[in-house]
Amino acid sequence: MTKKERRTFTPEFKQQIVQLYQNGKPRKDLIREYDLTPSSLDKWVSQSQKSGSFKEKDNLSPEEQELVRLRKENKQLMMENDILKQAALILGRK
Q1: 11-22 and 27-34 helices cross at what angle (nearest 10)?
Q2: In this predicted model, what pLDDT tens digit does every residue of 50-83 receive, in sequence order?
Q3: First CA to last CA distance, the chain
Q4: Can you spell out the DSSP letters for 64-87?
């Protein structure tokens, strides 16, 4: 069994597919004609309805956005803490 190579699609292409779907073209015809996965089509339709954008960061819920922000902040604070620990060790030797 050969693995399919991952393809990327432009936002314009995704918008055209969503527009065809919303104009009544059957889902199975779109999937077959454009060799798409059902989950990709469903995701694009959902993203288009939710925010109008196909970027993941634009489609995060407020809770998910806060989680991303907090993780980034936590990582920064841990790095700063490590720097201070190293500085304390260096100054303690002198």
Answers
A1: 150
A2: 777 766 766 677 898 899 899 999 999 999 999 9
A3: 64
A4: HHHHHHHHHHHHHHHHHHHHHHHH
Q: Which two tokens stand for residue 17?
A: 């597919």
Distance CA 7, CA 20 (A): 20
* Burial per residue of 19-54, b for 16 or more beta-carbon CB atoms within 10 angstroms, e otherwise: eebeeeeeeeebbeeeebeeeebeebbebbeeeeeb
pTM over 0.85: no
Distance of CA 57 to the CA centre of its chain: 6
Q: How far is the C-alpha of 71 from the C-alpha of 83, rounded, in Å?
A: 19
